[in-house]
């Protein structure tokens, strides 16, 4: 085994032991594509070390985030104990993931994973020690109703989360749960039609090749939908892509998320960026796996620095400080 692969195995073993608690004799389905085969190979080796029955399903790369896997793979996901998904484009917000979780699988999604992400960065976090903080923020969302998000960069957004669950994604899954990795985040899907105000993304939009932002992307929101997008070159990329799908649900305000992984760093890769401390993100498009009811062709996240988040008038996040 070459040196880099040996280092990658350390991260893969963390996933098996700490994230999915893999046991000998369990069935592990690894869903991947041709771009992510090396990541899949290392995950397979770590799972075999632990006595698992490993099946690898390779599909052609999805064309966009949120595109469903082939039906034969989606059906197989329902029958595995553990499903690991290293893919180029996110399938987190798909019926396949939702239904596999409902069938009792333990799922981890590793979107756009690089070899380095198995070696350093967010993967080095102590996920179980972050759990109480992550669950605390998620619980505040579950119990809350009116949310106000502001940032020094200009975000001023009101949301209603009445009756919506808070989701704690801290990279550790039990049967019937999914998480992404290495991002650690608490999120909630607002009531459809409730979001109003302005989003100013000034950290990153880790999709469509946009990545870390050169200048802010300003997004106006009315009655739960985006009404205008402006900024520079990167704003135009987002604007053109959303228009190309010819589906109004792409403009739906789907999520409010808070980054909670102290080891993540902003680099333009979705699952590192979304976990960065002192960031929040607004997800747009599909919301079905988060507690919402909207299915769109896409789900993108707009990240902003130093959020102040109030739930029913109580501050729960202020920059890098969490109050739970």
Automatic annotation (TrEMBL):
Keywords in alphabetical order, please. Answer: Aminopeptidase, Hydrolase, Metal-binding, Protease
Q: Which InterPro entries match?
A: M29_Exopeptidase, NicX
Molecular-function GO terms, alphabetical: aminopeptidase activity; metal ion binding
Domain of life of the native organism: Bacteria
| Pfam families, per the entry | NicX
Name of the featured protein: Leucyl aminopeptidase
Provide the species name. Answer: Cloacibacillus evryensis
């Amino acid at each position: 085994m070459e040196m880099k692969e040996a280092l990658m195995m350390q991260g893969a073993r963390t996933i098996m032991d700490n994230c999915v608690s893999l046991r000998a004799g369990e069935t592990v389905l690894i869903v991947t594509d041709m771009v992510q085969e090396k990541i899949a190979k290392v995950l397979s080796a770590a799972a075999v070390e632990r006595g698992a029955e490993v099946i690898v399903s390779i599909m052609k790369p999805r064309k966009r985030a949120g595109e469903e896997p082939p039906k034969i793979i989606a059906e197989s996901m329902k029958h595995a104990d553990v499903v690991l998904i290293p893919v180029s484009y996110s399938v987190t917000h798909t019926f396949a993931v939702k239904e596999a979780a409902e069938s009792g699988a333990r799922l981890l999604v590793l979107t756009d994973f690089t070899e380095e992400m198995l070696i350093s960065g967010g993967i080095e976090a102590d996920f179980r020690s972050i759990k109480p903080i992550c669950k605390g923020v998620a619980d505040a969302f579950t119990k809350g109703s009116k949310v106000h998000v502001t940032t020094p960069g200009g975000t001023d957004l009101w949301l209603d989360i009445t009756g919506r669950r808070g989701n704690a994604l801290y990279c550790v899954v039990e049967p019937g749960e999914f998480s992404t990795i290495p991002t650690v985040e608490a999120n909630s899907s607002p009531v459809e039609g409730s979001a109003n105000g302005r989003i100013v993304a000034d950290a990153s939009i880790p999709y469509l090749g946009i990545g870390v932002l050169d200048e802010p992307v300003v997004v106006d929101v009315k009655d739960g939908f985006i009404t205008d997008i402006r900024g520079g070159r990167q704003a135009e990329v987002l604007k053109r892509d959303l228009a190309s799908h010819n589906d109004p649900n792409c403009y739906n305000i789907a999520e409010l998320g808070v980054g909670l992984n102290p080891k993540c760093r902003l680099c333009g890769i979705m699952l590192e960026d979304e976990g960065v401390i002192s960031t929040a993100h607004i997800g747009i498009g599909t919301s079905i796996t988060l507690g919402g009811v909207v299915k769109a062709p896409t789900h993108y996240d707009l990240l902003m620095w130093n959020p102040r988040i109030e739930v029913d008038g109580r501050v729960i996040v202020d920059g890098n400080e969490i109050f739970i």
